[in-house]
Every structure is written in C-alpha cells, then in structure tokens.
Amino acid sequence: MPRVIMAWSKCKTEIGIATGSFSMPASLSSVGKIKDKSAVLEALDGDELSAKATGGEEVGHEDLEGGMRLTVRVIEPTNELYETLGLGEVVNTTDFNVKTHVPVQNFGVKVTPKNVGAMGITCPLSSVKCKPGWSDSEGNFLDLIFNFIKIDEDSNWYTRFKKPAPAANSGGSGVA
Known about the structure:
globular; 176 residues
C-alpha cells in the first residue's frame, strides 16, 4: 500500500489581488502564521429544487451546486496584511487605523503544504471576508474567509497541485 502524504499541517497561505481574469495573480504574499488546525476547505450546500404533484408525490428533483470556501485564522496579523486587504492605513511604524473589515477587492489564494508530494490548492478568484478578534486564550487574530468565485460552467473552482521536491541545486530539505 502506498504511503499517504498528509497535506494540511503547517501550510503556507498566500494571497494576491485578483487580476480580473481567471488566472492566478503574478505576485503573492504570505498572510502570516496560521493557527493550528484552523485551515478548512469545504464545499457549501447548493439549492434543492423539487416538483410535487397533487397529494405531495415528488415528480422531479434537482440538486444545484453550492460554492467553495476556505477559512484560515491568522495569528497576530501584521499591519501589512491589513493594508494588503485594504482595511485602512498605516499611521506610523506601530499604529494602523482600521477603517473597514470588508475588503473591496477580490483575491487569488494559494495554500502550499509543508510536505513534498502533498496536495495544495490555488484559487485565482475569491471574495474575502475578514473577522478580526482578540481573546485571552488566542491573542490577536484575523479570520479570513475566502468564498471562491466560479465565472461560468467551464471554469474551475480551484486547482489541486502536488508540492514538488526542491530543485537539486537549491540545497533545500523539502520542508517549507
């Protein structure tokens, strides 16, 4: 039996401003440290349509595709991340004025697994919802919720990819 390579431990999450076309942004930046076991990719339920005849007999049923969502919790988010998301402006080297929690731009997102051979994902177009928070147990955090956008029936929700081994001349250990 082949060895299973686990993908979702210590993943790197990167974002870039969407280009308007259905291709990954050329420039991506890390969102920062992700809280352990907070990254979740899930399919959302779509609508169900049914037709019933007199007496309640079901004569037709159709399930419609729902959406896709990626959620991550960023630990101690930086002012640079808030600025990238368009949530406000830098005041000085330590302060940031938060003006909104709703990014106005769409983003591409990439999740790269730690282990070589494990599966990651790229989504070139998603809306982003931001939920900042703070607690005694978790400190300062920012939940990022990426709702994937599918332009038409022929486009993909996202692309799965295997993390490649580092190039032979890079001297890397294979762990990101």
